[in-house]
Amino acid sequence: MRRRRLAPLLAVSVTATLAPVLATSTATAAPVATPSAASSSVATGGLDPYVKQKPRWKRCGADSPAEFECATIKVPLDYRDPGGKRIDLAISRIRSTAPDKRRGVLFSNPGGPGGQGLYMPLAMQEQLPEAARQQYDLIGFDPRGVGLSSPVSCGMEPEEEDWLRPYKEETFDKDVAWARAVANKCREKAGDTLAHITTRNTVRDMDLLRAVLGEKKISYVGFSYGTYLGAVYTQLFPGRADRFVLDSAVDPARAWRGMIQWWAEGAEPAFDRWTAWAAERSEKYGLGDTPKQVDRTFWDLVAQADEKPIELDGQSVTGDDIRSGMRAAVFSPEEATEAFVELRKAADGKPSSAKKLAAFTGSERTGTTATAAGTGARAAEIPSDNMTASFWAVVCGDNSAAWSRDPESYRRDAIKDKGRYPLYGDFASGIKPCAFWDKSVEPATGVHNKVGALVVQNEWDSQTPLPSGQALHATLKGSKMVTVLGGEGHGVYPNGNACTDGTVNDYLLTGRLPAKDVTCKVTADSNAEAQKDRKRDVLPGSPLPERAPDRF
Length: 552
What we know:
Blueprint lengths: L13 H4 L3 E3 L8 E2 L1 H4 E3 L2 H8 L6 E2 L9 E8 L9 E9 L9 E6 L10 H8 L2 H6 E6 L30 H19 L8 H14 L5 E6 L1 H12 L4 E7 L9 H24 L1 H4 L5 H17 L2 E3 L2 E3 L1 H11 L3 H15 L10 H4 L24 H12 L9 H14 L4 H5 L14 E2 L7 E8 L5 H10 L3 E10 L9 H13 L7 E4 L2 H12 L17
Parallel strand pairs: 2-13, 7-8, 7-9, 9-10, 10-14, 14-15, 15-16
Antiparallel strand pairs: 1-3, 4-5, 5-6, 6-8, 11-12
Helix pairs in contact: 7-8, 9-11, 9-13, 11-12
């Protein structure tokens, strides 16, 4: 692609950028911190050397488009001690296509935690209308501890990254030992860096990057975990948030154990919807004439596979695997039905479609690592367990108070929730490494402000169910919400639906939020686009972690 000659970024004096906020609270403070209670302005001198950095932009890689530029800046590991240890922040950009129409910068994040965002300008370039590409420089970054931003590692073996485990009495002690071992490995391998790989610090990095770029404000598009990142930014830096789109939203009050438990709670209504859908098409699929019969057909196969696992291309599929696979699949009833029909064929020893069985074999899941486009040889710098290590750093370190220190409490919760949410309750509530994590350096951020934002949500979302999006909307008093009735899948924008895409695009282009919340009706094309997007392993650059069933 031809490089366009663009005007230089706006130059703003160091003092005018306002130094990023520094939280002064400690791990012994109240469970939730707000800017007024736990933050104060840093003396400008402390961050002056960081703000004065001049990124050395260069083409991201020989195989990347010429206009896709990358650089690395330094940020403080601990913002309470800006003169101490520094870490890398890998950043990228695609400049506005029309300098005379340029408004500012548009940051973005794909989800995670642990998802690389360096490639995101390429994804946004593909997704945004030309008018938006004219208004914004598209800015990407790997969050601290992720990808090329001083990546953390716990030295985990691949089997140790398998973290969503069903409860079984005979394996519980082994699962406790696994969780303790992972926490210990992370502590030993990542050292003093681990405690500072948090959402609050990533938000501070975003604001420092804003200052380095010479911008007074940022606009932002965040998906899944990226919605929480964006919400925390609006809380810590409300005056610097311009146009914020939060797609497939995290409930801040449930970060993070409660959000994982949403996967079980949200699956039950989706499962009921699936049984009704399949029953209405019993003549075609033969799973039962009523929802109750379909339900029985499902659980009979689960019990059968628990007794004798189903062999699929050299893999043994147990009843627990069926429960886990169907948890995400049921949010798209047709896809779930076709997969389940093929699984029954395999159980009966009949030929079956491997492609349709991907929900149970895991062949469509993204890998544990993702490589940003154009990083070339530098990809070798990223530890193989980086996505999982950085995931635990945030999920455990953001809010250690959310995680019990008593292993037996996880046993009780897993048993209880398997009864309440039989499809996935024990997976979601079982023991995790966070039970053995060190106390958070700072309390979690309470989100409650009047900053304008647009929350976008599908009705049937496997990772951030509709009530989660509604909760974020309620906490952001200045926000409006777009709900796609009948919308399936995790991640909405863009989906080819004129109502949804039009509302988002209008907000990004004009800054005007809808006068009231918007309800869009799903179209066959938009759900088809969502399914196509879920199955596409790679957007321009790298896999999106939020498409994996074990990430946000």
